[in-house]
Amino acid sequence: MARIVMKFGGTSVADIARIRNVARHVKREVDAGHEVAVVVSAMSGKTNELVGWVQDASKAEGSNLNIYDAREYDAVVASGEQVTSGLLALTLQAMGVNARSWQGWQIPIKTDGAHGAARIAEIDGSFLIKRFGEGQVAVVAGFQGIAPDNRLSTLGRGGSDTSAVAIAAAVKADRCDIYTDVDGVYTTDPRIEPKARRLSKISFEEMLEMASLGAKVLQVRSVELAMVHRVRTFVRSSFEDPDAPGMGDLLNPPGTLICDEEEIVEQQVVTGIAYAKDEAQISLRRVADRPGVSAGIFGPLAEANINVDMIVQNISEDGKFTDITFTVPSGDLDKALFVLGKVKETIGFDAVQSEPGMSKVSVIGIGMRSHAGVAATAFKALADRSINIRAITTSEIKISILIDGPYTELAVRTLHSVYGLDKQ
Ligand code: ASP
Ligand code: MG
């Protein structure tokens, strides 16, 4: 017997027929004798609709301002998961499975007070463990919790992945299965490179980079939590026949296992290629080269909640001036330029140059820690395709390259093949 947390995303619970299919996946594990807790998202599109209503309702007549009370936002958008948790419990009951739905506050899933983007502070696993003892399948509404002000909170978009991993950690589950509309984590986006392969395993560290650098399979926070608590997490498809052979395999169900790197025997140098479109590049020319300048630039940007990514500073030629280049999401460019305009006098720089429509393509793999030449291979391959590199940043396990947006697909395919990812 194992203890399994099963999470189903929005497309997997999009209508009653799909919820029934989900119930069959759950029943399979229950029939195999496992202790099961389920976490659900809202029906696909539902949360967007709710967010739209919140925005509409909070506009003063004739105004275009998008400001709303985050507590009421939470009260509204958390409702999508309430609906699906109840519907799945009903469907399971109709199949003869002992099931009951639970909202975040009932467990309770305690969060901090950052309404709209709350972080889970604490989950006492004993409530769910008691349900296991009663032979009950607890169906938990994902994405939501309860804040210190005793009000509903939500975890930020995509947050039900995080609910599932946090619950798996709290009940010390053997596995957390994230069921979604793809059948695993791929070496790159198969819509760009049809030769992309499904990975059977990927390390927590690599998955964290993949998720932060643009792969949209899992919420970044959920991967962080899985890594910290060492939760073995499977990404798998809910659309496969729940009773197909191997689906109930305890150790190796079909999908991608996110796990400790020790578990990965055949380590590749490069595991995957991720990309993020819609980056904007900002360069500050002739910035005074003295202590406090970077703090003076990036402090105000952070206060304005602008997510700065790649940062490159030149070594000053004359000891007086330097250039600083960095990227922000294209959507934040105007705001960033506004903030920079305000600090221009105090910092002292000549000019701001900016360009939206950039892409960041990243090569990821823990194998590069112990291999030389991985970066050079990427640069050469891009050069051979006449793709110009605008900026580069690296970490121990990734190389990120900023290029012009229209070359994104070509760069992804080029890098995917140069590291042999399209071959078995
Ligand atoms: N329903 C929420 C959203 O769309 C949470 C989730 O699906 O993970 O963001
Ligand atoms: Mg999701």
| Oligomer type | single chain
Distance between the termini: 34 Å
Number of domains: 2
Structural class: alpha/beta
List the uncertain runs: none
**Count of DSSP H/I helices:** 12
Instruction: Give the overall shape, derived from the CA principal axes.
Output: globular
Bound small-molecule species: aspartic acid, magnesium ion
Number of strands: 18
Q: Within the CATH hierarchy, at the fold level, what is the topology of the largest domain?
A: Carbamate kinase
H and E order: EHEHHHEEEHEEEHEEHHEEEHEEHEHEEH
Strand content: 25-35%
CATH architecture of the largest domain, please? 3-Layer(aba) Sandwich
The name of the CATH superfamily of the largest domain reads Acetylglutamate kinase-like
Proportion in helices: 25-40%
The first-level CATH class of the largest domain is given as Alpha Beta
Average residue pLDDT: 95
Binding site for ATP: 7-10, 180-181, 186, 191, 216-217
Catalytic activity: L-aspartate + ATP = 4-phospho-L-aspartate + ADP
Enzyme class: transferase
Binding site for substrate: 47, 81
Record the SSE blueprint.
Layout: E1 3-8, H1 16-31, E2 35-40, H2 46-57, H3 70-77, H4 79-94, E3 99-102, E4 109-111, E5 120-123, H5 126-133, E6 137-141, E7 144-146, E8 152-154, H6 160-170, E9 175-180, E10 201-203, H7 204-212, H8 220-229, E11 233-237, E12 256-259, E13 272-288, H9 293-303, E14 311-313, E15 321-329, H10 333-347, E16 351-364, H11 374-384, E17 391-395, E18 398-404, H12 408-418
Parallel strand pairs: 1-2, 1-9, 2-6, 3-6, 9-11, 10-12
Antiparallel strand pairs: 4-5, 7-8, 11-12, 13-15, 13-16, 14-15, 16-18, 17-18
Bound molecules: aspartic acid (ASP) and magnesium ion (MG).
Magnesium ion (MG) binds at residues 9, 158, 161.
